[in-house]
Amino acid sequence: MTRRLPPLNSLKAFEAAARLESVSAAADELCVTHGAVSRHVQQLEHWLGHLLFVRHNRKVVLTPQGRAYLSEISAAFDRIALATSEQMQARRQQILRVNAPTTFSLRWLLPRLSSFQLANPAIEIRLTTSNEPIGKIREEVDMWIRGGPQDVEGYAAREFLSEVRLPVCSPRVLKAEPLRNPRDLARHTLLHAATYPTMWSEWLAASGNTRLKPRNTLTLEHFYLTLQAALDGLGVAMGPVALVADDVAEGRLVFPFDGPVLPPWRYFTYVAKHRSGDDAIRVFQAWLSAASRFDVEQGR
């Protein structure tokens, strides 16, 4: 059924004049002439078929019908104003909920996130960390960052970062006990992450040192703890190049060997297919790719 609505300008003129009890005050508020307000109110009265207010000197006095109509019109305008404000606020500040692995978040994403915020102040990133499978945690998530590729039903995957893995340690470790070749690791402590238990054995096999026995081993619960232990000089860790690039660039960590390198580990964004076209998601995906390219260009 088609709505029967009077002219909007007539409603605005009546609501302002009735609320302010003055045609002149309504004209000032609406930035129109006194005559324009009067004509709009008369048009509304003609449309309704009865008077809405009468004029006494410079004031207007509502008729019973006018009082009842003002109550409804004012409430409707309030609801329109609130809905409009919410829409504008949503446009000004879009929220993007991202879930990413802890080590990736601490070592790569957070150090770079300020550049995204400066360039995109209308998008608020709400970051949570987890290694849980995609879609398996309770909180609402707009974008998942995980290794891959993974074929997850209902989700579109997009690669943005690829990295290789090499041994890494503090310069203090090399000063105390040089590492000229992989066999020298027998005089060092190897740092293991419980979440990646085979990384060292894979690298030692690739270097032809399957039977190497280190002086000591230290296993930590999370990979980011292993990298922190390397920074603190507790031993040699397996370092994903992209996640330790800033520390290497600033001299806090070094790669004692050029190779071999373990096969690339690839990071992807995973987004529900029906959300792939969302503006905030597309902007953040483009920024992730650009940040990764910048690292490559800088030799990181």
UniProtKB/TrEMBL annotation:
This is Transcriptional regulator GcvA. It comes from Cupriavidus basilensis. CDD domains: PBP2_GcdR_TrpI_HvrB_AmpR_like. Residues 6-63 form the HTH lysR-type domain. InterPro entries: LysR-type_TF_proteobact-type, LysR_HTH_N, LysR_subst-bd, WH-like_DNA-bd_sf, WH_DNA-bd_sf. Belongs to the LysR transcriptional regulatory family. Pfam families: HTH_1 (PF00126), LysR_substrate (PF03466). Keywords: DNA-binding, Transcription, Transcription regulation.
